[in-house]
Amino acid sequence: MIKAEGRYGELLLYGSGLIFIFANALLIYREVYYLLLVPFMLAVFYLAFFSLDKLFMTVVFLTPLSLELSRLTARSLPVDISLPTEPLIIIIMIMIFFRVLYYNRINLEILYHPVSLAIIFYLSWLLITSITSTMPVVSFKFLLVRIWFITVFYFLAVNIFRRQKNIRTFLWCYILALGIVAIYTIYNHSAYGMVSQRAAHWVVRPFYNDHTDYGAALALFIPVLAVLSSRTISTRPLSLLARILLVVFLVALVFSYSRAAWLSIFAAAGVWILLRLKIRLSTLVTFSLVGVGLILMLWGNILRELEKNTQDSSADFQEHLTSITNISSDASNLERINRWKAAIAMFREKPVFGWGPGTYMFQYAPFQHSYDRTIISTNLADGGNAHSEYLGPLSESGLLGMLSFVIVALLSLIIGFRLLNKLKKRKDRLLVLGILLGLVTYLVHGILNNFLHSDKAAVPFWGFIAILVAMDLYRKKAEKREADSR
Question: How many CB atoms lie within 10 A of CB 305?
Answer without folding.
Answer: 11
